[in-house]
Amino acid sequence: MSEISDYQQQLLHAIQTEKASVTLMEVCGTHTMAIAKSGIRELLPPNIKLLSGPGCPVCVTSQGDIDAVIELVRQKDIILVTFGDMMRVPGTYSSLQEERSQGADIRIAYSPLDALRVARENADKEIVFLGIGFETTAPAIAVTLEQARSEGLGNFSVFSLHKVVPPALELIFSDPDINVDGLICPGHVSVVIGVEPYEILAQKHRKPCVITGFETLDILEGIYMLLKQIKQGDAQAEIQYRRVVKREGNLVARQSIEKVFKPVAARWRGLGVIPDSGLALREEFEHMDARLKFNIPEMEEIPIKGCACGEVLTGKISPPECLLFGRACTPLKPVGPCMVSHEGSCAAYYRYTPAKGRG
Amino acid sequence: MCLGVPAKVIELMANEVARVDVNGNQTEISVRLTPEVKINEYVLVHAGFAMEIIDESIALETMKYLEELLQYE
Q: For a Cys staple, A180 with which of A25, A144, A318, B18, CB 3.0–4.6 Å?
């Protein structure tokens, strides 16, 4: 163990001796949490900035999409099955948690396959799984849909809010107001998509990208690899998290996504509508598309007054720079999704940054 | 949300289901996305699915940059 902690110290020392001004961004809620928890940000010299980008699927879900799901659970005989993360996210007038307290049947599951069990046990009800998440989660939903189809479960459908990461990264790199020198790429999204999408981005925008793991050592090594590339004028896509991420990703998982979903334009909180960044069900699975099955219209986007989640999600401001942060918006009484989600940047800052550093 | 936990495969069962050990707790997961997995291998689990087999040899090989880091001393 001491060898590893020595190595960690040496990585940190190398990073701390870096003189150039560098801004790095991570785009994964698990990185946001790991960086906040480990205190890495506080250990970096002032010339190295670490930003959090749009890496939390809960946070980037648009207000209108949450309102649409709430519209759905108000219909008769619906059981909504969801990952727990979505319960407290506020829509314009309500949240799933509030709807549940009003009598809606909303159940929390760890695996989407659990929703199939609910469907088998409740033949007289309509079971809708709220599909949310990036490429890491989409294959699990795809397999679940295939399974439902092969079992002929007529009372099961999915409300897909799935999004894919590369189009959002393209937008971040193209935005002249966002100055990022290198990207700490999401480890578990990359387990599925592999290194190729980042190679395209790195080449096009001349910015290094490193797929990084989640231990403190991984993150320090990832930062070191990015700084080294920047210093040498390189712009490669590399894998630090090699024990899990293969160059080609997980082909079975990629094929599952491809088979069930098709890319569509999707609205991201803070980033607007991004072409080909959402996943909708293909025609062969359309009868299990809850939006179509229950005729849920697109909802209007009504911004939350004073909430700067959009700017936080694009790294334009850090959480303490939002006027509501820590005052009107706290984890106990959150206003925006970045404070609601356990992995949101604001929640991570609030929880782990000493009060004096919160601004 | 994209949280993944390592788990050791202890039994391969019917319908592409495996019994795994996560820090001493046993649970069942789907191995449909990692069809080549074998008993005693470690997998990364997300939302009830094994997403990838963890390469133990690489996991044990740390300190890749040790030599070049020494120049910062």
A: A25
